[in-house]
Write a structure and sequence with these properties.
By secondary structure, the chain is mainly β. The protein has helices spanning about 5-10, 465-489; strands spanning about 20-25, 40-45, 50-60, 60-70, 75-80, 85-90, 100-105, 110-115, 125-130, 135-140, 145-155, 160-170, 175-180, 185-190, 195-205, 210-220, 230-235, 245-250, 250-255, 255, 260-270, 270-280, 290-295, 300-310, 315-325, 325-335, 340-350, 355-360, 365-375, 380-385, 395-400. About 5% of the residues lie in helices and about 50% in strands.
Length: about 500
């Protein structure tokens, strides 16, 4: 586990810059711009294993959400202000394990999307609404097609929200999208089941109204193609949940076509999208590369590129966000088989020409799972940080670019009056910025103290990134094959 004081000094410092290799049309593009500076870093470390999954920004404030993987899987969320000051934090009490993987702005608070009793028959999609101080306002549950649902994301779309995920039927792994209004009342539910396996990892507002879903699909095996690849998949739903179009995407590496091609996130260009994803020849994670591509508003493919850090490294893009000069792709990079994961951020313009790149690591393993615009030309990456081999994972938020944090004016030191020594708070000192003393942390609201962490979900190779690949193997290939075996002989 980190030494908290020294860790925060490292977190607040400028991260390491790692060279990488770009494969595709961006190689040799126009003059590179300077990388965006790291403005501040903040962590959430209330429990032993605080698995972070998604982030959302609203008026400069950022909310990070996930679940405590300490044996009871409780949802948590914490919010920081525009200068990294901690606003509130909460861990919600639940009667069954509930994993939250999505968060959206909801007024002055947030909407958390997860699954109650995930991985079990009878599991239900669950939404939690919290106010501007992290207090729970309501909880809603919803039925979806199939069994054993898993919720992956939620986004504010129009005057409501669209939630997406997957579930098992008797013969398929299907994706679903659910729309609710601002009070959580269900409006429509759409099932996506045209392929043997369909995943919806992310949802975003479409440029022309409705919702855009991102994921991957695998068609039915045939005699001519007994082992079809997983293709990147994007589909557009209109305001009533009807599908308007769907496109599949593939990428070719130096070793041939990818066997695993996943799209996790999308950002609007005004008349189309920048997509962020991952390509690999297999599920074991070797030779994986970050994947970005552009499309028009109907999914027509434009430019694309693959990113690999060095000759033996791997990379994954999990998120994309608009910046003042283009877009930032965020994820994770590993420069070799024995190297630790570092948070990867790469800047591109609208045509995917590279502007800059950087990696940041707090001495352990850092992964960026979400990227959101900060409102001042910068952006914020949400993810998690840990130490290899330690049963400790913290939520992590980093601000890049945008307005610098003001340096507070020093005040004369007052003569202190002796007083009794205070009892130490269970909360650690908040991460400060390189130029500001920051704001003292608020106590994290919780219903019960954390128990011994259970390492059922590791930092390296998990989440809406490689955890999706793990889910493809465990939930898709494993569970589905068990169901199909009696019928398929």
């Amino acid at each position: 586990m980190f030494e908290h004081t020294s860790r925060r000094r490292v977190l607040a410092s400028t991260g390491l810059l790692a060279a990488g290799t770009l494969v595709g049309p961006v190689e040799g593009a126009g003059a590179a711009q300077a990388e965006l500076p790291l403005r501040w870093t903040e962590t959430y470390d209330r429990n032993g294993y605080d698995t972070a999954r998604d982030a959302v920004a609203d008026d400069g404030a950022v909310t990070l959400a996930g679940y405590t993987n300490d044996g009871d899987d409780r949802p948590w969320a914490f919010s920081v202000g525009p200068e990294g000051e901690r606003r509130w934090g909460t861990a919600l009490d639940v009667d069954e394990p509930t994993r939250v993987r999505g968060v959206a702005s909801a007024g002055e608070g947030a909407l958390l999307a997860g699954t109650h009793s995930e991985g079990q028959e009878g599991g239900t999609v669950t939404l939690f609404r919290v106010d501007g101080e992290g207090e729970r306002q309501w909880t809603r549950t919803y039925d979806t097609p199939g069994d054993s649902p898993r919720t992956y994301d939620v986004a504010a779309v129009g005057d409501g929200y669209v939630v997406c995920g997957v579930a098992l039927t008797s013969r398929q792994l299907v994706a679903w999208a659910l729309r609710v209004d601002e009070e959580g009342e269900r409006q429509w539910l759409t099932e996506l089941s045209e392929h043997r396996i369909t995943y919806a990892f992310g949802v975003r507002p479409a440029v022309d109204g409705g919702a855009l879903l991102m994921g991957t699909v695998r068609p039915e095996p045939t005699r001519s193609e007994s082992d079809p690849p997983y293709d990147g998949y994007v589909t557009k739903l209109d305001g009533e949940g009807e599908r308007e179009w769907a496109e599949r995407y593939s990428a070719r590496t130096t070793g041939g076509s990818g066997q695993v091609q996943l799209v996790y996130d999308a950002a609007s260009t005004g008349d189309g999208y920048v997509l962020a994803g991952y390509v690999a020849p297999s599920f074991d994670g070797s030779a994986g590369r970050g994947w970005a591509l552009t499309t028009d508003e109907s999914g027509g493919r434009g430019n694309s590129f693959l990113y690999q850090p060095g000759e033996d490294g791997t990379a994954r893009f999990f998120a994309v966000a608009p910046t003042e000069d283009g877009f930032a792709l965020a994820g994770v990079a590993q420069e070799g088989e024995t190297a630790a994961d570092s948070m990867l951020v790469l800047g591109v313009d609208d045509s995917l020409s590279r502007n800059w790149r950087r990696t940041d690591r707090a001495g352990g393993i850092d992964v960026g799972f979400a990227a959101v615009p900060a409102g001042d030309g910068g952006f914020v990456v949400g993810g998690q940080t840990s130490v290899r081999g330690a049963d400790d994972v913290d939520g992590l938020v980093r601000k890049y670019g945008g307005d610098p944090v003001p340096t507070p004016t020093p005040t004369p030191t007052a003569t202190s009056t002796p007083s009794p020594t205070a009892t130490a708070s269970p909360m650690s000192t908040a991460t400060s910025t390189p130029t500001s003393t920051g704001t003292p942390p608020l106590a994290m609201e919780t219903d019960a103290a954390g128990s011994t962490p259970a390492r059922t979900d590791t930092t390296s190779g998990t989440g809406p990134g490689f955890g999706a690949v793990g889910a493809l193997v465990a939930l898709g290939a494993g569970a589905l094959s068990r169901r199909l075996r009696p019928r398929d002989g």
